[in-house]
């Protein structure tokens, strides 16, 4: 009789599940820590790399600027040497410039080449166009020359202003001198006229007869000592010319004849019923 087969494993009690290992549990944590460490290291290294690249770029720019400054210094030295050249060099340079200007002013003739062709027709020669004169390049202006020109212009302006002020002063002085000359001329003329005249003094009392004074005769009509006024009658050619209400020190001018010199009557003192003065007449006539 065959034996009965059955599964013995079904009667064996099932074992406990396997425990998870510590390495598997800590692996995510270790992974996160590693990523954070890499991030921190990269954060610290990145600014340093940027700073080093910026420093390298700045150093290269500084080197370029130094090279440019050195080139500019060389050019300035060359220009100073040209300006400080001796007179002979300047003369030769000016002669070269004149020669170059003459050569540039005259049109340059281009050589004409004759090309023989295989055909029977004669070749046509194209006339050479005159070369355009080449203008010399303008010399670079230096700030020192500009300052010198500005200073010279300012000095010329100041000199012109000083000359204008001096001219106005001279004009004023000339005008003053001209006025003084005119006043002196008038004084001289007055002095000359006075030298040819003579004063005849007189005293007239009221009620008296005529008093001959030079070519005329005077008679007092009234005298007001309070108001310093007087009235006198001048006789000439048997005629009376009455001078009414005349004041003290008033110059009374009158003519005796048509072609004669004028006479001047001046009263210097007025009292009650009396006057004192003088009569100016021409000495030549007298």
Give the helices and strands, then pairings.
Layout: H1 22-83, H2 87-105, H3 143-195, E1 197-205, E2 211-213, E3 216-224, E4 229-236, E5 239-247, E6 252-254, E7 263-271, E8 274-282
Question: Can you walk me through this structure?
Answer:
The protein is of the alpha+beta class. Among the domains are: about 25-85; about 145-195; about 200-280. Helices cover about 45% and strands about 20% of the residues. The chain contains three helices and eight strands. The chain has helices spanning about 20-85, 85-105, 145-195, and strands at about 195-205, 210-215, 215-225, 230-235, 240-245, 250-255, 265-270, 275-280. The chain has a four-stranded antiparallel beta sheet with strand order 1-8-7-6. The protein has a four-stranded antiparallel beta sheet with strand order 2-3-4-5, with no helix packed on it. A hairpin with a 2-residue loop joins strand 2 (about 210-215) and strand 3. The longest helix is centred in the first third of the chain and has 62 residues, at about 20-85. The radius of gyration is 65 Å and the shape is rod-shaped.
**How many angstroms does the end-to-end distance come to?**
216 Å
Helix proportion range: 40-55%
| Mean pLDDT over the residues | 75
Strand order of the largest sheet: 1-8-7-6
Overall structural class, as computed from helix and strand content, comes to alpha+beta
Instruction: Give the tally of β-strands.
Output: 8
Output the number of helix runs.
3
Note the overall shape: rod-shaped
Proportion of strand residues: 15-25%
Spans of at least 5 consecutive residues whose pLDDT stays below 50 are none
Largest sheet, described in full? 4 strands, antiparallel
Order of helices and strands: HHHEEEEEEEE
- Oligomeric state as shown: single chain
Integer-rounded radius of gyration: 65 Å
